[in-house]
């Protein structure tokens, strides 16, 4: 009986670890692709998205965002710092949504 309880607790701990590691790895791999320049997909010329990215590219803002995503992904992967990582990624997402809101008014439906 004790072995079953111990085993079930251990399986729950493993599931919780996997549930934290998977999104952490996604947030580590996504910025790695951009920071190492593995993929180059520019938006169509003259579109509002191209103008927006053209304005942000020289400033280094996207590099800063990707570095914060990488740090957030590492924090989410480590169980003790998972809450801080989720907080960092949430705040990063909120700032991105607020920054892109004016762009959404320009795009056609």
Structural commentary:
- There is one protein chain.
- With 109 residues, this protein is mainly α.
- The protein has one domain (2-106).
- The chain has helices at residues 2-35, 48-56, 61-77, 82-106.
- Helix 3 (61-77) runs antiparallel to helix 4 (82-106).
Helix-strand string: HHHH
Low-confidence stretches: none
Write down the oligomeric state. Answer: single chain
The number of helices is 4
Whole-angstrom Rg: 19 Å
Summarize the topology.
Layout: H1 2-35, H2 48-56, H3 61-77, H4 82-106
Summarize the structure.
With about 110 residues, the chain is mainly alpha-helical. Helices cover about 80% and strands about 0% of the residues.
What are the salient characteristics of this protein?
single chain; 109 residues; mainly alpha; 4 helices
């Amino acid at each position: 009986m004790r072995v079953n309880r111990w085993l079930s607790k251990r399986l729950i701990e493993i599931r919780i670890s996997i549930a934290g590691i998977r999104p952490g790895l996604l947030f580590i791999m996504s910025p790695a692709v951009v920071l190492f320049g593995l993929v180059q997909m520019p938006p169509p010329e003259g579109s509002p998205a191209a103008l927006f990215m053209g304005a942000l590219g020289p400033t280094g803002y996207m590099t800063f965002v990707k570095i914060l995503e990488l740090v957030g992904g590492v924090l989410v992967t480590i169980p003790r710092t998972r809450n801080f990582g989720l907080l960092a990624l949430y705040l990063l997402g909120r700032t991105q949504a607020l920054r892109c809101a004016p762009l959404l008014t320009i795009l056609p439906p």
